[in-house]
Amino acid sequence: MPMKPKADIPANTLEFETTPLVKPTGFREYDARWWFGIDGNPKAPELNSMGVQALGLGLGTVVHQMGVEPKIVVGHDYRSYSLDIKQALIIGLLEAGMEVHDIGLALSPTAYYSQFALDIPCVAMVTASHNENGWTGVKMGANKPLTFGPDEMGMLRDVVLNGKFEPRDGGKLVRVEGMRDKYIQSVSEKIEIKRPLKVIAACGNGTAGAFAPEALRNMGVEVIELDCELDHSFPNYNANPEDSVMLEAMAKAVKEHNADVALGFDGDGDRCGVVDNTGEEIFADKIGLMLARDLSKNFENAKFVVDVKSTGLYKTDPVLKENNATVDYFKTGHSYIKRRTTDLDALAGFEKSGHFFFRQPLGYGYDCGLVAAAEVLRMLDRNPDKSMSDLKGELGVAYTSLTMAAHCDDELKYGVVDKVVAAYEALGKEGASILGRKVVDVNTVNGARVTLEDGSWVLVRASSNKPELVVVVESMGSDEDMRKLFREEVKPRLAAFDEVGSYNQEI
After folding, report:
1. Residue 312 CB contacts under 8 Å (≥ 6 apart), including other chains
2. Which in 184, 210, 306, 467 has the greatest CB count within 10 A?
3. Strands, DSSP E only, in 133-286?
4. What is the DSSP letter of 24?
């Protein structure tokens, strides 16, 4: 029987080479993320290669316990260590008796697409998404197009950490060739953009650089490549379309090339960020609103799902009301919104982070940055006399912040959020005010989203995949008020907790 993993083993030791290391906090709400480590960084690893093998054996064990056919698609993103991690994961999956279909270098949506193309129920994509170099992780699923949620992640955590492995005979490895080309064809073959469009494709030197430019050109647009050369040192910025550095690079390129739009893709290609023709970023929740307005004209009684970080304009939008479209606010997280979109039979789901979920006839229901990009381009094509900034200008007025994250250890962050939620719930019950406006609603489906009487709101929640607290604020009044909501309300409230550290970016 394989060894039960340990939670803490010093690196560069005999024990590190011979014993599985799996830190419990790596099992997140809907995927797995660990600090694997890179040369020159003193931070202690949370996972080693034997720990990855244990994860693979644990995943295979869970698949069998769920009664799912033991076939799985496996791919990896472009990092210096991702291939090695995938191979270690495969060893564990084979030990669990799984038939492993290795598609090679891939985007997460390439792996999801492969489940449909190969008719395979399970997926394990080795990726740390937009996390910094040194991080790794796995996005998993056993019921396409869905990925694991808290229940499945809890099962996996229990099996791995307690060594409840069930090795089986019958493991098999199948190497799948040509899936990159098939995936690119699948996202572009039905897209025929007639309007002349010049598009910046920004990939942050991540995996999407090997996929996005070709797919966009196949859709019929002129493509200007920005940081599309693969480089796992990520020399310019992390591939994260919520990161201000990436957005600034996209804005500069739009102005330099007089482009119609810039489309930015994260490290594993399941997210898409947008900068308009004037060089202004449009946060993904408002892109979602623009797409919902446009799609609701052609899809009667359309349903949409958005996450709690998204703009309040969905509630008041006149076009959605006129077209009898409905909008459901739900928990932040790609697995949550993906599942909710499927459960409600919605046409699409949108997350402020840039995850877009399009269901038939637009997509398969999973998050894909290139499918989202195609819908943005088709929206422009359907509105040939309007620019991206014109379409944005048709929205109601709301001033929304960047997504900000304050450091808080994984072991502590949920406790802090519980206290913040309790404090805001007390304000709501007391009919108290924030910056002169009465608290009218406290939505606790995911942290606390506190709505004021003028529609402005603040959100504090625990990150599902990093040791952070996530903060978003939105004002219906002014940019200055939006900044005050952060600086005079949320920031001092969180500063009262010793567990809360510095922010990754601030307004």
Report:
1. 398, 451, 455, 456, 457, 474, 476
2. 306
3. 135-141, 172-175, 198-202, 222-226, 261-265, 272-275, 281-282
4. G
Distance separating alpha carbons of residues 351 and 329, to the nearest angstrom = 10
Render pLDDT for 11-51 as a digit per residue (tens, 0 to 9): 999 999 999 999 999 999 899 999 999 988 999 999 999 99
Output 343-347 pairs: Cβ under 8 A, ≥24 positions apart.
344/303, 344/305, 345/303, 346/302, 346/303, 346/304, 346/305, 347/295, 347/299, 347/302, 347/303, 347/304
Q: Which helix (H) or strand (E) holds 197?
A: none
Q: At what angle do helices 150-161 and 49-65 cross, to 10 degrees?
A: 120
The answer to whether the beta carbons of residues 309 and 351 sit under 8 Å apart is yes
pLDDT tens digits for range 232-276: 999 999 999 988 899 999 999 999 999 999 999 999 999 999 999
Q: Are strands 222-226 and 198-202 parallel, antiparallel or unpaired?
A: parallel
Q: Is residue 399 a contact partner of residue 411, using CB atoms and an 8 Å limit?
A: no
What are the φ and ψ backbone dihedral angles of 297, each rounded to 5 degrees?
Answer: -70, -25
146's tokens: 């869905």
